[in-house]
Design goal:
alpha/beta, six-stranded mixed β-sheet, 23 strands, about 35% helix, binds nicotinamide-adenine-dinucleotide
Length: about 525
């Protein structure tokens, strides 16, 4: 049995949802391989979304503490970059094993702080683990290129070198997966890293830092600083930070992309989404309904790849009852409860916003097929619960359509043809993921070719690419050039040096002879 992680104990109580015995604990920063209590004057409460109980408190890291973290990272970088690449990969191999051993602890913490079901929380860890697996063989994507004889006797070759100190800024919805989208690739490529977890659920990142250290990562290569806007601004502004990986909402992403860019940093920003499914009349009934319900309401709709809009070609009528029945049958309760399908939303503000958007749909003329507002959850009266909800006859100009709801709400639109459906999807500003459900290869191929979205599913509702590919959101869902993980993620965290070398042999071959042969 894996031992209990000390960082987790220090950041709260990840192991059960029973009331705290000693009240909330201050989450500490992780700097130079040690937990450090912040001298912050301000703290943010981390709450259990199913109960509102305060689990821990996250510091607004001070400027001096932040600078100290960057100094540690900079110093660690100078030696880490020259640690043999196979040795860096071995740290990832050991990290894989440790994450497997501690998956239950990580998942319990995620459920406690974020609210998702334990099954979803294990998925959160597992999808991150897959990036660690990818990084364990990063050498393949670190390879450079060589052209012999660019002039006679002259060779040119390119090598990939790490950037220096890189930083990651994370959202609340995948507290393990998103840090693991970033740091395994950055670190294995030879960089050091500053991670700012979401202030809403920092526990999993803290546990991962401890596991990295146990896996053999030298102190200072990974550092965690907590906070909100001030910490983010410091990341954008600090001259020793060379690159920023961001995942979160549109507003924060655009801001960080601009502010980081102004300071000469490369930035990759994964942002919001409105992922559409197109349902053709020939789609398989049962599997399509199951896929839609899982993708729209699973993880309470708080996935950047959730299907939040469905376009029914030929109308929704023949699908309505089946989808409604499936959605109604999902069990809404605290994430650690037996049989839970839909957990709470992250905060009371989020619940109010989602309920307001459902109401706006009704007010603006949509048909409320299923209303999840006011759902009663026995034993969790103060949780942030909204049940699965379905709005039909939604139009592009409605608020429930052009806002990212980020809750268990499926907005449904109708189209007469596939062309019309594709136009609807391509007119929406985001371009993260999309899916088509059909039994026609020709329809699927047309969709794949014409859709202006970066990740496409064909009878697959949530087409998140495995880490040997990259996570390729487009348009409003992404700012930057190179996406996260996979070969392109490796390119993001490295830069190309091109060397031209002249080792032509001359008449004087003396340099090639062993000393003493002339005598
Ligand atoms: P968020 O933007 O509120 O927060 C993300 C991070 O940015 C946090 O660490 C936060 O402290 C920081 N931040 C927030 N506002 C800021 C500001 N004004 N200035 C500086 N920093 C700021 O996002 P969230 O609510 O935590 O996460 C949900 C969002 O993330 C959704 O929009 C979802 O679609 C998106 N998301 C996208 C992807 C993707 O890959 N495209 C993946 C997961 C989540």
């Amino acid at each position: 049995k894996a031992r209990v992680l000390t960082t987790a104990t220090a950041s709260g109580r990840p192991f059960s949802a029973t009331p705290a015995q000693h009240g909330p604990v201050n989450v500490r920063n992780w700097i130079g391989g040690e937990l450090r209590e912040s001298q912050a004057s301000e703290y943010i409460d981390v709450t259990n979304p199913a109960t509102q109980e305060v689990i821990s408190r996250v510091p607004q890291t001070t400027a001096a503490e932040f600078d100290h973290a960057v100094e540690n990272a900079q110093e660690a970088f100078l030696s880490w970059r020259n640690v043999a690449l196979p040795q860096r990969q071995r740290v990832m191999f050991r990290l894989q094993e440790l994450i497997r051993q501690h998956t239950d602890e990580l998942a319990a913490n995620i459920t406690l702080e974020q609210g998702k079901t334990l099954a979803d929380a294990k998925g959160d860890v597992f999808r991150g683990l897959e990036v660690v697996e990818y990084a364990s063989g990063l050498a393949r994507d670190m390879m450079g290129e060589l052209v012999e004889n660019v002039a006679t006797g002259l060779d040119t070759y390119s090598i990939r070198q790490p950037l220096g100190v890189c930083a990651g800024i994370c959202p609340f919805n995948f507290p393990a997966m998103v840090p693991l989208w970033m740091l395994p690739v950055a670190i294995t490529a030879g960089n050091s890293f500053i991670l700012k977890p979401s202030e809403k659920d920092p526990g999993a990142a803290m546990m991962l830092a401890e596991l990295c250290q146990e896996a053999g990562l030298p102190k200072g290569v990974l550092n965690i600083v907590h906070g909100t806007n001030d910490t983010v601004n410091r990341i954008c502004d600090h001259p020793d930070i060379k690159a920023i990986s961001f995942v979160g909402s549109d507003g924060a992403g655009r801001y960080i992309y601009e502010r980081g860019g102004k300071h000469g940093k490369r930035v990759q920003a994964n942002m919001g989404a409105k992922n559409h499914a197109i349902i053709m009349p020939d789609a398989n009934r049962e599997s399509t309904i199951n896929a839609l319900a899982g993708a729209a309401f699973g993880a309470a709709g708080q996935r950047c790849m959730a299907i939040s809009a469905a376009v029914f070609v030929g109308g929704m009528d023949s699908w309505k009852q089946g989808l409604k029945s499936k959605a109604e049958a999902l069990k809404v309760t605290a994430g650690h409860e037996e049989g839970a399908d839909v957990g709470p939303l992250i905060s009371p503000e989020s619940k109010t916003r989602v309920e307001g958007l459902i109401q706006s749909g009704v007010d603006q003329g949509a048909e409320l097929v299923l209303d999840g507002r006011g759902v009663e959850v026995a034993g969790y009266q103060s949780g942030n619960f909204v049940g699965p909800s379905i709005l039909n006859k939604v139009k592009a100009e409605m608020d429930c359509y052009h806002s990212e709801i980020f809750g268990p709400v499926l907005v449904c639109l109708e189209a007469d043809t596939l062309d019309e459906a594709i136009e609807i999807v391509n007119d929406e500003q985001h371009g993260n993921g999309t899916a088509i459900f059909t039994q026609s290869g020709a329809a699927a191929r047309k969709f794949q070719n014409e859709i202006d979205v970066g990740m496409v599913g064909i009878n697959v509702p949530i087409p998140v690419p495995l880490p040997f590919f990259s996570f390729t959101g487009w348009r409003g869902s992404f700012a930057g050039d190179l996406p996260m993980y996979g070969k392109q993620g490796c390119t993001f965290f490295t830069r190309t040096k091109t060397v031209t070398a002249n080792w032509k042999s001359t008449d004087d071959q003396a340099g090639m002879r062993a000393p003493g042969l002339d005598s």
